[in-house]
Design goal:
Layout lengths: L17 E6 L3 H16 L4 E6 L18 E2 L1 H9 L11 E3 L1 E6 L2 E6 L7 E3 L18 H11 L3 E3 L3 E7 L2 E6 L3 E2 L4 E4 L5 H11 L6 E11 L2 H8 L2 E6 L5 E9 L2 E8 L4 H9 L1 H4 L14 E3 L2 E5 L5 E2 L2 E3 L11
Parallel strand pairs: 1-2, 1-12, 2-8, 5-14, 12-20
Antiparallel strand pairs: 3-7, 4-7, 5-6, 9-10, 10-11, 13-16, 13-17, 13-18, 14-15, 15-16, 19-20
Helix pairs in contact: 1-3
């Protein structure tokens, strides 16, 4: 490994022909790529941008998903529209017009202004495990990644396992080959522990965000049952159950997505929640707490920002940097 020193900072400014690596092809990485290439075009700067991500967002199932409840807020929808980005109707599985808060004492409904359905419920990947993916259908991450590639980025289907330096510039060590050297490396790896360790080693002072445990379960109820039981509302739960912080049920086409956050998220907590009167009253007749989800994962949620999320030639963005907490 060569010395990472950069000769008193020479060459630290991006110029024509500079190479940028974006590690992680989720929304943070894709948004960075889209807006960086837009800005470069407006300023007459020619950049080469590689997006490195092992996932294939055309495939259903947890291996090709970034493990999230899949709610896009009204504010983000409006920001995207202002930038000329319109989320396709095939990506949005339900427009949300209200929130319903459920507690042990009862429930309250919170309507959006003018009852507009500007909050979007969608899958991050192509869909839950076993789902039939219609031709041309993309989840939110695949849609954004396609926009980034359309701007001129190169998509590399590989995971980054390490970083080395050549004459002060970082090279990325993939499973299949080496990439670079690069003038700038953007970390957009979410809370993936292996990727975070790679960047902690490369940046030196960077320390990953504090995270809380979560569980996401996709239950296939059928479109009619989802519409009848959940409507166009996102249902949130603040219940007096051991280890539960909060939970939510989100309607999405044929599926209801259950998101659970707590100090100890395990099968016992999930069963207790599914048996609770508040949640049982919401689910269709015949649904049993022991029913196996069509798809499930145990992700983490950012609850405290990272420290020192930057270094010479590196910057961390999204959940692995500074992000809205509990989003």
């Amino acid at each position: 490994m060569s010395d990472r020193s950069d000769h008193n900072g020479a060459g630290m400014k991006l110029a024509n022909g500079s190479r940028v690596a974006v590690v992680g092809g989720g929304p943070a990485g894709s948004f960075f790529t889209i807006f960086a290439l837009d800005l470069a075009e407006r300023t007459g700067l020619e950049l080469e941008v590689d997006i490195l991500d092992p996932k294939d967002f055309h495939q259903a199932g947890p291996a090709h998903c970034n493990h999230c409840g899949g709610i896009v807020s009204e504010s983000l929808v409006q920001i995207l529209a202002a930038e000329g980005i319109s989320i396709p109707t095939t990506t949005v599985h339900r427009g949300i017009d209200s929130y319903v808060l459920h507690t042990d004492a009862g429930s309250v409904r919170l309507e959006t202004p003018l009852q507009e359905m500007r909050i979007a419920a969608m899958h991050r990947g192509a869909g839950p495990k076993g789902a039939a993916v219609p031709s041309g259908h993309l989840g939110f991450d695949g849609f954004l990644q396609g926009l980034a590639v359309g701007k001129g980025a190169r998509l590399v289907c590989d995971a980054v396992a390490g970083v080395e330096f050549r004459e002060g510039r970082p090279e990325l060590i993939g499973r299949n080959e080496r990439y670079g050297p690069y003038d700038l490396v953007v970390g957009a790896v979410g809370l993936n522990p292996h990727s975070l360790k790679v960047f902690e080693n490369a940046l030196g002072r960077y320390r990953r965000p504090t995270a809380a445990k979560a569980a996401i379960c996709e239950f296939r109820l059928g479109a009619d049952s989802v519409h009848r039981c959940l409507g166009n509302s996102m249902h949130t739960f603040l219940l007096n159950l051991p280890h539960l912080t909060c939970a939510a049920v989100i309607p999405k086409g044929d599926y209801a997505t259950l998101v659970v956050l707590g100090s100890r998220v395990d099968k016992t907590l999930l069963q207790s929640l599914l048996r609770s009167p508040a949640l049982k009253a919401l689910l269709p007749d015949g649904f049993v707490a022991e029913e196996k989800p069509a798809c499930q994962c145990l992700p983490q949620l950012n609850v405290q920002a990272a420290t020192h999320p930057y270094a010479d030639r590196f910057v961390m963005i999204g959940d692995c940097g500074v992000s809205k907490l509990y989003k």
